[in-house]
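Hi all, a correction to my earlier message: I attached the wrong file for PEP-CTERM sorting domain-containing protein. Here's the right sequence:
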Amino acid sequence: MKSTILACALSALCASSAMAKTYDVQLHQSKTNPHQWTGSFNLSQPTPWEGQYFSDTYNFTPDLPGALTVNGGVVNFFGFDEQKIRFSHVFLNETELALSSSDGESKARLANVVLSGPLSLRVTGWTGDSASYSGNFNITTAVPEPATYGMLAAGLALVGVAARRRKAQ
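and the right structure:
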């Protein structure tokens, strides 16, 4: 009897974790600024896996190096209860986004948060029968300061001087 209950519990656990959805979001580089990237997505009718509960994960590619300044969030606009999504948690790389809900919209957002890649967004909540949500994230990669280039030039000059002295001896 105990083994049957344990087997049922394990199969339910495995089945529920398999129902979480994972999506890939392509980041697009700005044509005018190589340090600016944007990624957006739209999900029509999240697939609930336990009642009306859903769990979605978005992986952003390519993996951007260094410190990233991120702005953005997810939003659900609704007119009727069956179109409403109630976000329970939204995390971008373990940083929780601020949740809010007002008349006709539910949203989660963050502003000027510094993270490192790869970026992964996890969205969980409860969905209406015909609900959808979308998201947009703007990402700025680290821009070297002018002093960094000055130090690089000075270092290369020192290496050149050392090589010339070694060659002369």
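Sorry for the mix-up. The chain has one domain: 19-145.
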